[in-house]
Amino acid sequence: MLYVGRGSEEKRVHLVGEISYLCHQKDMPVEFVLVGDVRSSIPEQYRKCCTFLGEIVDEKKLSEIYNSSDILLLVSSSEGFPLVIMEAMAYGVVTISTDVGGISEHIHNGYNGFLIKKRK
Fold first, then answer.
1. Of 40, 72, 109, 116, which residue is the least packed, with the fewest Cβ within 10 Å?
2. pLDDT attached to residue 119
């Protein structure tokens, strides 16, 4: 499970941390990899369930990360159409995202990704 982006409030990265914790509690065989300056956005109790790679500007390294990932997870409260989805799609990474902004124009639920209702 991959998250790439900022740790700003509308990105709701804390939910990625919570999801990683819930998966860990259920012994699900999934690794959560987070790219970007997001460590402080994840509550302390969930950080042990995440791998933080920090900001990556090396395109080759980022390409390797996408190539080794299966799912991109975005839980934003608002978006336009994030570039990260296009990047992930180019590498065959399936997107699971909140259905906000222009995302549904490119991600068709159950066809090339999954859209979830925004949680308050």
1. 40
2. 58
